[in-house]
């Protein structure tokens, strides 16, 4: 799919991967719809996009709130019709043992990324089906492939997002709507600063073996996945190798993740 002239809706667009993706696809001629909770950060980013000649529209929304998701979808459909590309990128959550996580925090971890992607995609899908074209990108985490100790709620939400991606891919086969899952390794975004203690829970083996990617690198992979209509991208290659090892030697991989991971 060519991005020039397309409408691309990006959640979690105020910083990190979402902001970098918005800037990149705008530079390719797409109109971007920026979604996140902070109206101020979104407006600043829209101004930066306009300064490079891009087009950006700001729609603040808390995607942990189903009513706000429905209102967002209605506004977008009313203003632009169905987006050509939906990038489900929003996600939050500290890495904690299950019994150390408060119930409200667990619900928020599931709401972002899983429930937000589930409900927003559902709200936009009928119009995309009627048009007969479109692309959905779910940005996921390595823990959807390689679970780690000490991050139970976060891992659960990411496995749920993986399940949604696989199920959507089956449902939409032959509809003209494609689905991509992009799974980067560790990213030098604001996530670890916003979720104190998470970085220290990455198993030592993964910290040593998998290099860190920039948000700009992830943005380039997302754009390429849409343009080349790729269904799954796991990167860098070291993470892909770990995933393959997990499939071939699951017991060994689980042991190494536990052995070099977080313990009480």
UniProtKB/TrEMBL annotation:
Please give the CDD domains that the UniProt record associates with this protein: SDR_c (cd05233)
Keywords for the protein's UniProt record, in alphabetical order: Oxidoreductase
An annotated GO cellular component of this protein is:
membrane
Pfam family, any one: adh_short
- Where does this protein have coiled-coil stretches? none
* Domain Ketoreductase as annotated: residue spans: 6-186
Q: Name one GO molecular function term.
A: oxidoreductase activity
UniProt lists the family membership as follows: Belongs to the short-chain dehydrogenases/reductases (SDR) family.
UniProt-recorded name of the protein: Short-subunit dehydrogenase
Organism, by scientific name, is Umezawaea tangerina
| Native organism taxonomy | Bacteria, Bacillati, Actinomycetota, Actinomycetes, Pseudonocardiales
